[in-house]
Q: What sequence folds into this?
């Protein structure tokens, strides 16, 4: 029997003879600590990932990844249009990383009912609007039904505006389009649907309409729009694609990334990432500290056994392997139960039943979201195993200082 088999055999005997000893109780605490730490990590990353995914989905459904407009236009008035006959709009498929481009326009207006008046920002969209990314925001009615010969009279308002003005799908409302130093134009439009994102930046003021209507109100021709919204295949390539778009656009254009347009939200998400990283680092430190303490207790409880094995010729390496095997088994057991608790919570309690509610006005969503990132979960498991197993080398180093004579007299 070689030295590895001897170490494994003795470790198994120690495991089976622990019973209700003090070290057995401490070992259970260690397993529980690792399990709890891993479960918290899995739940934290699943919630953070789900939260970020939901926020990104809501932002991109309104603002895309990149927005190209006339350099002289601001965020409220699209006084200076851009033509459709440009390299970016006609040949966007030749720019690597771009998935879709759609046109849009913006114009301030007033919604007026018999009792209330509400200032809004009308965002005009066309047939190329990426409705698939917006579909999840619709809560009532239908989206705009575009027409071929004239503009659609349909508009989509937010649930917040519908409650403030007491409007519902099918109702008609007067819309006053503001013009600089001119009499406002009035149109009577129909509420075709209601959306809700939970984000104040959108729900408070944005109304979706047919871009042909805004072209008419702005006295633009059919080949003039407020700008282009560009969707990317991968959000991680935002800076690279932005540089390519910049090189392709005309001299009078500007490109604004979504991270700049909604900078407060993205800075908030970055702060969340930092807080979670600090929190998880503390959990790892506690888990490592617990395992060091547990193995030290196991060694102290077996000091006489160590002295006896040294007396009969066992090497320090063989003895260290015995306690390394015992420690690694505790780590594996803790990782197993950590996955059971963490994945079980995410799946059965939150992913399917959504038992934890949120204040939508504060968190932009009504429940705690979950994202399944399997590679990240596997990386967490591997990271905890490698780190805690490596830390076990610290307490086992004390074995080389134990002298057989003193160990056999140890009580």
A:
């Amino acid at each position: 029997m070689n030295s590895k088999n001897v170490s494994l055999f003795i470790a198994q005997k120690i495991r089976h003879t622990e019973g209700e000893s003090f070290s057995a109780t401490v070992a259970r605490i260690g397993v529980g600590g690792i399990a709890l730490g891993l479960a918290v990590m899995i739940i934290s990353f699943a919630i953070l990932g789900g939260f970020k995914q939901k926020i990104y989905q809501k932002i991109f459904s309104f603002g895309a990844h990149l927005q190209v407009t006339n350099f002289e236009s601001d965020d409220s008035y699209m006084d200076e249009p851009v033509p459709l006959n440009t390299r970016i709009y006609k040949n966007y498929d030749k720019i690597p990383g771009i998935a879709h481009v759609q046109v849009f326009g913006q114009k301030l207006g007033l919604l007026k009912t018999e009792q209330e008046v509400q200032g809004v920002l009308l965002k005009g969209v066309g047939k190329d609007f990426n409705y698939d990314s917006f579909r999840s925001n619709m809560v009532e009615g239908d989206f705009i039904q575009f027409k071929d010969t004239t503009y659609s009279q349909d508009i989509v308002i937010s649930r917040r505006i519908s409650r403030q003005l007491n409007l519902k799908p099918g109702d008609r409302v007067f819309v006053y389009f503001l013009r600089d130093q001119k009499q406002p134009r009035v149109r009577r439009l129909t509420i075709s649907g209601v959306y809700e994102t939970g984000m104040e930046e959108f729900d408070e003021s944005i109304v979706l309409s047919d871009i042909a209507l805004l072209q008419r109100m702005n006295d633009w021709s059919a080949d003039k729009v407020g700008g282009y919204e560009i969707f990317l295949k991968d959000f991680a390539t935002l800076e690279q694609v932005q540089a390519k778009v910049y090189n392709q656009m005309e001299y009078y254009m500007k490109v604004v990334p979504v991270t700049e347009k909604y900078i407060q939200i993205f800075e908030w998400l970055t702060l969340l990432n930092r807080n979670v990283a600090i929190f998880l680092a503390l959990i790892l430190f506690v888990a490592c500290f617990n395992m060091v303490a547990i193995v030290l207790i196991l060694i102290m409880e077996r000091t006489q056994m160590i002295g006896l094995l040294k007396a009969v010729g066992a090497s320090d390496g063989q003895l260290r392997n015995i306690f390394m095997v015992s420690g690694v088994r505790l780590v594996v057991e803790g990782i197993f139960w950590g996955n059971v608790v963490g994945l079980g919570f995410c799946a059965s309690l939150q992913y399917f039943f959504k038992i934890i509610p949120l204040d939508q006005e504060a968190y932009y969503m009504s429940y705690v979201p979950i994202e399944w990132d399997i590679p990240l979960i596997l990386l967490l498991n591997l990271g905890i195993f490698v780190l805690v197993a490596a830390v076990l080398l610290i307490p086992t180093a004390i074995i080389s200082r134990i002298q057989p004579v003193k160990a056999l007299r140890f009580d």
Observations:
- The two ends are 31 Å apart (CA to CA).
- The first strand starts at residue 66 and ends at 70.
- The mean pLDDT is 79.
